[in-house]
Amino acid sequence: MKKTSKIGMILLAIWLVLKGLIPLLNIHIANLDLLMAILAVATGILIFLDR
Description:
The chain is mostly helical. It has helices at residues 3-25, 32-49. Helix 1 (3-25) packs antiparallel against helix 2 (32-49). The longest helix is centred in the N-terminal third of the chain and has 23 residues, at 3-25. It is elongated, with a radius of gyration of 12 Å. The relative contact order is 0.25.
Protein backbone atom coordinates (compact mmCIF):
# COMPACT_ATOMS: atom_id res chain seq x y z
CA MET A 1 0.00 0.00 0.00
CA LYS A 2 1.41 3.36 -1.01
CA LYS A 3 1.93 6.13 1.51
CA THR A 4 -0.72 8.38 -0.14
CA SER A 5 -3.29 5.61 0.19
CA LYS A 6 -2.40 5.00 3.82
CA ILE A 7 -2.75 8.70 4.65
CA GLY A 8 -5.99 8.81 2.66
CA MET A 9 -7.41 5.90 4.62
CA ILE A 10 -6.42 7.50 7.93
CA LEU A 11 -8.11 10.75 6.88
CA LEU A 12 -11.18 8.79 5.80
CA ALA A 13 -11.34 7.13 9.21
CA ILE A 14 -11.02 10.53 10.93
CA TRP A 15 -13.74 11.99 8.71
CA LEU A 16 -16.11 9.12 9.41
CA VAL A 17 -15.56 9.31 13.17
CA LEU A 18 -16.05 13.09 13.22
CA LYS A 19 -19.12 12.87 10.98
CA GLY A 20 -20.66 10.45 13.45
CA LEU A 21 -19.62 12.16 16.68
CA ILE A 22 -20.48 15.76 15.78
CA PRO A 23 -24.28 15.24 15.74
CA LEU A 24 -24.16 12.82 18.69
CA LEU A 25 -22.25 15.23 20.92
CA ASN A 26 -24.10 18.27 19.56
CA ILE A 27 -20.83 20.09 18.77
CA HIS A 28 -21.10 23.59 17.31
CA ILE A 29 -17.94 24.97 15.65
CA ALA A 30 -17.88 27.93 13.27
CA ASN A 31 -17.44 26.82 9.64
CA LEU A 32 -17.60 23.15 10.61
CA ASP A 33 -19.30 22.22 7.32
CA LEU A 34 -16.49 23.89 5.37
CA LEU A 35 -13.81 22.08 7.40
CA MET A 36 -15.52 18.72 6.89
CA ALA A 37 -15.85 19.37 3.15
CA ILE A 38 -12.14 20.24 2.88
CA LEU A 39 -11.22 17.08 4.80
CA ALA A 40 -13.46 15.00 2.52
CA VAL A 41 -11.94 16.45 -0.67
CA ALA A 42 -8.37 15.97 0.60
CA THR A 43 -9.17 12.39 1.56
CA GLY A 44 -10.75 11.63 -1.81
CA ILE A 45 -7.80 13.06 -3.71
CA LEU A 46 -5.26 11.06 -1.69
CA ILE A 47 -7.19 7.81 -2.14
CA PHE A 48 -7.69 8.53 -5.85
CA LEU A 49 -3.96 9.22 -6.38
CA ASP A 50 -3.14 5.70 -5.21
CA ARG A 51 -5.16 4.15 -8.06
